[in-house]
Amino acid sequence: MRAPSSLQKRLGVGLTLGITLLWLGATVGAWLAVRHELNEAFDNALQETAQRILPLAVLEISNREAPDKAQQVAPLKMHKQYLMYLVRDAAGEILMQSHDANPKVFRKHPTEGFTTTRKYRLYGTSALRETVFIEIAEPLEHRREAAREALFALLLPLLALIPISLLGTWLFVRMSLASVVAYRRAVEARGVGDLSPIKVSRLPAEINPLAEAVNHLLERLRKALESERSFTANSAHELRTPLAATLAQVQRLRHEAPEGSLRLRAAKIENALRELARLSEKLMQLAKAEGGGLLSEAPEDLIPLLAHVVDEWRQGSTRQVELLLPAQASVYSTIDPDAFAILLRNLIENALKYGAPDQPIEVSLTGQALLRVINGGPAVPEPVLQHLTERFVRGQSDVGGAGLGLAIVKTIVQGVGGRIMLTSPATGRQDGFEVRVWLPLAAAD
Ligand SMILES: Nc1ncnc2c1ncn2[C@@H]1O[C@H](COP(=O)(O)OP(=O)(O)O)[C@@H](O)[C@H]1O
Ligand SMILES: [Mg+2]
Q: Residue 106: exposed, middle, or buried by beta-carbon count in 10 A (0-12, 13-18, 19+)?
């Protein structure tokens, strides 16, 4: 898959390239027009100069004693002269010339009007019925330099324009996309199980339909999940009463049946019914765990809850359950007390069920709301361990069960934004099984 390209980069480069090309086009157009106007102005000046000098030259020549002797006009001041001129008669004989005039630049015979040679622009005009001619030459380099300077002046702003356009587009796109980034953050910040619509204000019109579509999808997903959950919870709930009634009947049947195969069969049915009741109880717990509402409004102290649940088990079982509490008096967490009790019951139930009967069960809580349940018994291999938290997955065991206990625990932990880790053998031991659960710690209010 190709990496997605950045809109910012594409717009920045595209717009800058477009502006540069347009500017270059405009520059060429402007430059052509400027060059044309410059040429016209230079030609005008040339023509004007010739027409000013000519009458003076004619006057000077006609006043001379030896009229045929060519005369060089001494310059008034030494300066870099752009223009040079020749005054000739019709035969091409030079009558007068500017001090640096080079006759090679001019044609052999005088011509009237404008002509262009390789290096010069020439203008010629005559007086006294075409007997005296004046021609002026101006180096073309002079005009070219002016045109070059005009071109530079037009191109110079491009140097500033390119970085300004790149930076400007980048900043502008970044500002325009700020709400999209906020939307992405809102989506990312969603915890597991939060399928409520995502609200973000002022999204660009192009993105808004996308956000609405996502919200519709979330809504449909939420409804589908909700109906699945409520179906599970309702069925489990509806099964409770008939199951309890049937169980009572079967118990009576077992008591009343004579010793022998009938009583044995009644006992088997009774066990199967108990198993069924446990399964329906676990399904209800799972549906509750998946249904959200696992966080309580106000933080609760975990220590009394923990002590209460452990006491329950101590009374119901002859096995030893050790409880290790932190030095501090209370550990507050945002987990819902009912959810915490379900989680803890499932972990202790497992430890009693699968732990070595001769070793005590260790339940501990740290000040950082880290809950640990440790039991003895043979170590569980790593590949098996990884899948134990999945639904309906069980390890190798003779004891019955549905494979839902650890799935319920994991769902609750994820729902409150905590973390769970299974370790076997237990830390610092050769054997045993350890479950660590990091619960969300809250400040006491
Ligand atoms: N404390 C424990 N010690 C050893 N094995 C355990 C422990 N807890 C869970 N297991 C293993 O993980 C499996 C899945 O547990 P669970 O999800 O509670 O389902 P169930 O208890 O119904 O089998 C169990 O079948 C067992 O093999
Ligand atoms: Mg279990």
A: buried
